[in-house]
Amino acid sequence: MIIEITKSGKIFRKLHEDSKKKTTIKSISLIPYLGDNIIISKGTTFETFMDLLTPDRKLINMIFFSDIKGLDIMEFIKEMKSELKNADEDDKMKIDYLVIKRNFSYNEYKDETLGLERYFDYYALLEGYGDWSNKTKGAIAVDFTPLNKLKNLHLVIDNEINITAFGVRKFKNIINKKNGSLIMGKCEITLYEVIKAILYEITWHGNISQRNERRKDLEDRVNDVKSGKAELIPWSKVKKMLNEKLAKKTK
Questions:
Q1: Where are the domains of the chain?
Q2: d(CA 6, CA 12)
């Protein structure tokens, strides 16, 4: 089954994407439909989607407990509802919209005990898309962005998949040389995955105070580098120091 969320916040359920027959969901709870594939209608904002989580906030906190690190989603929803203190203040990177997409990657690494280990990453993630500081467009992380800056942005589902396998030699003849693609195609994303991706991203640094503290710390470090206050160590020197420490441990 497919659940469709419209820009007005209405919820419909239908058998498949092209089905003309659909049922209006009158229940205020999304919990029974977590396993459904999801369609988000064009023009649906981040705030509209987040508002649908509010009636289930206690259950959402329980179901996604590990993803939100035991936090309460209402702290973030309240921030989303608040007014911007500096409405004219813009980040260097301007976000056009928010996108939920699947991340795939095949990885290999050598373990001294287990030998060659392989693993396959497969998960949905939330990111922004817009202008980078160098006037090109691309993905933008939103883990440091207050939710009241995101609430009016449109939320989009990207069903395109791009499985990457950088550095895996046995695939070198079939990998797309330009983008590292091993397989490209389409896949569905469930309501559960969308909620998980959003909550995981917005709570990445902990609660709002922890997020703001970490952001300020990083901004201070960047300013120290730009002003010349911070002493930078060349990578060649750092690499030499690390190799010397590793050599001592292996003796």
A1: 2-204, 207-251
A2: 8
CA distance 48 to 86: 23
Say how far apart CA 158 and CA 185 lie, in whole Å.
11
Contact 163, 123 (CB under 8 A): no
Give the pLDDT confidence score for residue 205 in this predicted structure. 95
Binned average pLDDT, 10 residues per bin, the chain of 251 residues:
89 76 77 92 95 94 94 95 68 81 71 62 88 82 93 92 58 53 76 95 95 93 89 90 82 60
Structure-token pair, residue 138: 């691309």
- How many whole angstroms separate alpha carbon 83 and alpha carbon 131? 24
Nearest alpha-carbon partner for 159 in 95, 201, 98, 99: 99
Burial of 194-225, coded b for 16+ CB within 10 Å and e otherwise, reads bbbbbbbbbbbbebbeebeeeeeeeeeeeeee
**Contacts for 2 with CB less than 8 Å, ≥ 6 apart:** 13, 14, 15, 16, 17, 19, 36, 37, 38, 39
Q: Which of 74, 38, 78 is nearest to 56 (CA)?
A: 74
Residue 243, phi then psi, degrees to nearest 5: -65, -35
- Could you tell me which of 56, 13, 59, 40 has the C-alpha nearest to residue 100? 40
